[in-house]
Structure formats: structure tokens, C-alpha cells
Amino acid sequence: MKWQKGKAGGISKKSYLRNVVQKKKINFELFNGNAAPGVASKNASLKKSIIKKIDRKSHCTITELSKELNISVPKTTTLITSLAEDGFICDEGKLDSTGGRKASIFGLTADACHFVGVGISRYHIDFGVMDFKRGIKIPFQQVAYKFENSKESLNTLIEAIKEFLKSIEQEKLNIAGLGISMPGRINPKNGKSLNYFNFTEEPLNDLLQEEFDVPVFIENDSRAMVYAEMNANDASNEKNLVFINHDYGIGIGIIIDGKTYYGKSGYSGELGHIPLFDNEIICICGKKGCFETEASGFALKRKFKEKLKSGSSSSVLKNKKIDDITLPDIIYAAKQEDMLAIELLAEVGEKLGKGLAVLINIFNPEALIIGGLLAETGDYIRLPARSVLNKFSSAMVNNDTTMRLSKLGEHAGVIGACLIARSRVIF
To answer: Which domain holds residue 65?
Structure first.
């Protein structure tokens, strides 16, 4: 049964959501910017600053917060007490001390609220739920899905989100926001998608927010992924990152000085459509010679099928006809040491390396992170790319940049979607 405007399966939308999401008594006025001017507004700002400090450090004492925010201990104590009463923070016990009175340490309350993440890929949707402390509340779930620019595809997406919300109904979560990571050119400021679901004048996030009655935030998948990588525990000190989403296409997410870079119109990161090669291959964008025509998952699949049609052999042919071979089939074959798959991955990796050299020379990042479907092949793609990268980038700049595969793997997009919803609701 499809969603209807204002209804879900014949039940009013708000009644449905009340059944799915148990709204706890949490004072979200702190985050909506509606506090009256004056003392109330200042206190709300200080409370948000306290939450931000605790979020960054995992826990703090009243004395630490007082010093960092330059406010008195009594004032800090009052604010902490109010935040605890509202359910946002909790006393996590006493700080170890060599002498004198032990100070209480305060942390965020994990179950204060939750954030749903939806990671859209070309052939599936990933779902996740994150708590207030950035912990994953429920194991990730994945459903098959065909991502297309059609009303049918949009209805299927909405239905899938509805089914996921129903599946977590028994958890009685207080959902404060829903983040969606998806391919294509996305402007998160106005909530519009340029490439997909662009057949209505209403911004996509507004349309979805009306359906689900919770704040909805859409973001390009590569930018969601780099945001997730920046917030990973072992990358928390890196503030200049470039994430290469090496999938069917090629996109990048850019972090500069700890902030996501969007560009003037919000459409930055389309690395795949730089005319880097002199060839006659027509890209999906309609132009020739784009980076994607030689270095993407689409290119790998095309090259693989061409080799098979010209007489090359592969273990993939034991179970599939040439025209039915998919990108995951090729990746699986490479992991099983299929020589044709490994050979073509090396060729694609070498072409990828040229693009990475461009990125390093332009951005001089602390880290260059390769993620997406092709990153699952590990060194088969990384080592050829590294070799060409060393050849074409400045040694001085190259030595300052760490190149690595994504540690979040296939979950980077959905984790990024959760984190983006959390950040935009709270901060």
C-alpha cells in the first residue's frame, strides 16, 4: 500500500507516526531557535554550547565547562541541572582524583533522542538508527531498491522508509530527525535534488518532511560519507579531508578546516565529470572524455564485458551470461583471484590515480580516503592508484597526505546520514 498525501495506509499521517514513534517529554525548544530574546535566549545558547563541548570530549566536569565557556561555576551548575532535567545529559559518576573532593563528570544521555539514517545506493537502501551519543542503536538493515528519477521510485523509497519505521516501532524511540544520503547533485540549503526526484517544484526534503512529520535533511552521498569519516573516532583530529566515492560513478566529498565544502550552488564534488581523458566514450552526462568513462565502476563493467566478448576467460562465466554480469559479480571474482577482474581493476586503479593526483595538488589534504563499492577490492585498486598518484603529484605535497581506504566501508553513507540529521537538529 502506497503513502497518500497526508495519510499512510488509510490512517492519518500523524496518527500513524504516533503509533510508530513514542514521543518522550524532551524539550526540543532548545534547538529550534524560538527562545525569547534576552536571558532565555542566552541560556539556550549556553546550553547548546555545553552539549557541543560534552559531545566533543565525551564527558566534562562543571569546572571544565565553566573555564571553557568563561561563565561562573554556579551559572554552569544551574545550566547543567536544567539540561539534566530536560533529559539531555546525565551524571556519569565521579572523576578519579589524587586528593580532595571528587568532581562529577557529565555525559550525554544516549536515549534522549534518536536519528534515522537512510543511505540510498543505485540498487539498495541502507537504514540505521543513531542515539544522542552517536551510538548505533539498531543493527543496520538493507533492502533491495532500484534508484531512478521516477515517481514510482520515489513512492518505493517512501514505502521502504515507512516499513523501516514500522519495524522499529517496538523500540519506542524518540526520533528527532531523519537524514537521507543519496547520489546526484544535492543542495542541502534549499532541499532540492537536481538529478533525481526533480519532477515537482516542491523541494524534496519538504515533500518528505510532510510525509513523515519529522525534520528531514537530504545530502549528497559523497559528502555524507566524508562527514562520517571526519567524525570517526580515529579521524577526529583531521580537519582537511577528501573522500573519493569510487562506485558506479565517481564523486568526492570535501572537508576544509573541519567544514563541509559545498560551493556556491551546493553542487561541489562532481569529480567524475572532469574531462580528464581524450577518448570518444560518451559519459552518462552526455559529454566525452569524462573521468568516469575510464576510472569508474561503469567503466570497469564495460571493459570487463568487452574483454569477454573478444575471447578472454573468467570464472564469472560459470554462473552468468555476459550481458547479465553486474559490478558486484566482478568485485566478487577479484576477491576469488579471478585474473581478468584483477587485471582490469589495476587498469581502472591506474586511471583513478591520475584523478587523485589532481586532488592532492589542488587541496593538499591531510587524508585522501577511498570508499564506495570498488574500495571493497582493497589493494587491488589501492596499490595501482597509489603508484600513479606518486608519479603525477608533487612529492612535497604527496608526503603530507595519508591515503587510505574507508574504515566505515559500506556503512559510511548511512552513518553520515544519521550524523547529518543529528548535527542539523542539535547544532
So the answer is: 28-95+102-108
Distances (CA, A) of 312 to 31, 306, 347, 366: 60, 9, 16, 41
Alpha helices, H only, 70-220: 73-85, 151-167, 204-212
Same-domain check for residues 330 and 383: yes
User: CA 184, CA 195: separation in Å to the nearest integer?
Assistant: 6
Burial of 234 (0-12, 13-18, 19+ CB in 10 A): exposed
One-letter amino acid at 17 equals L
Strands 367-371 and 241-246: parallel
Residues 212 and 334 in one domain: no
Q: How many domains does the structure of the chain reveal?
A: 3
Closest by Cα among 69, 106, 67, 102 to 84? 106
Same domain, yes or no: 297 and 362: yes
Specify whether the CB–CB gap between 211 and 336 falls below 8 A: no
Shared-domain flag, residues 140 and 211: yes
Distance, CA of 276 to CA of 291 (rounded, Å): 5
Residues with Cβ within 8 Å of residue 407, at least 6 apart in sequence: 229, 232, 234
Task: Answer with the one of 108, 139, 168 that is the final residue of a domain.
Answer: 108
Q: In the chain, helix, strand, coil percent, each to 5?
A: 45, 20, 35
Pair (121, 173) in one structural domain: yes
Dihedrals phi, psi of 10, to nearest 5 degrees: 85, -10
- Collapse the DSSP code of 290 into the 3-class scheme (helix H, G, I; strand E, B; otherwise coil) and give the result: coil
CATH number of the domain that residue 7 is part of:
3.30.420.40
Residue type, 409: G
C-alpha cell of residue 258:
573541519
First to last CA, the chain: 37
pLDDT score of 385 more than 70: yes
Q: Is residue 415 predicted with pLDDT exceeding 50?
A: yes
Helical ranges in 28-180 per DSSP H: 39-57, 62-69, 73-85, 151-167
Which grid cell sits at 293?
Answer: 568513462
Q: Are residues 387 and 263 in the same domain?
A: yes
Q: How far apart are CA 34 and CA 51, in angstroms?
A: 18
Who wins on pLDDT, 58 or 253? 253
What is the structure's pLDDT at 6? 36
pLDDT of residue 154: 96
